[in-house]
Amino acid sequence: MNRLLGLTLSLLSTTLLALAADPPKVGDPAPDVPLTATQISSLKKGADTVSLKDLKGKVVVLFYYPKADTPGCTKESCGFRDLKKEFDALGVVVIGFSSDKLEAQTKFTEKYNLTTPLFADPDKKLMTALGVKTRSTWVIDKEGKIAKIYDKVNPEKHPAEVLEFVKTLSK
Asked: Which of 30, 32, 61, 121 is geometrically suited to a Cys-Cys bond with 140, CB 3.0 to 4.6 A?
């Protein structure tokens, strides 16, 4: 009984510390949270999960949307899809994520022919690590550090805005 109580208190304190931690800021390392994703083989061949750490050496655009297949999320995801060639030409990896399960992300990908991998974060581990409160985007540099955070996002205009910023990282 005492051991169970001790384990419970330890888990609770770890959870509270994680929730109380400040979200990462520009210049901080991107969190290392392995997740499943649609189109995972485009990120890491033969993997079941991938994390931002696996993508070190590349510029990564990580955009959070509240729920797959809703109007704003669809506009934003399709906007990134439509600019895929431009991001690819710069060597930039674009990944979307939400708390949806992998099945929902897969349906969303197939319905709109999305070309960017989508992380499935149903346990909200990445959301917690990033301090997600609303639609946001993080640009991660080649060293794995956060180069820019967008915490106010217009789903229609945002993909082009991010493209302009990542061009400055590629110079």
From this structure: 30
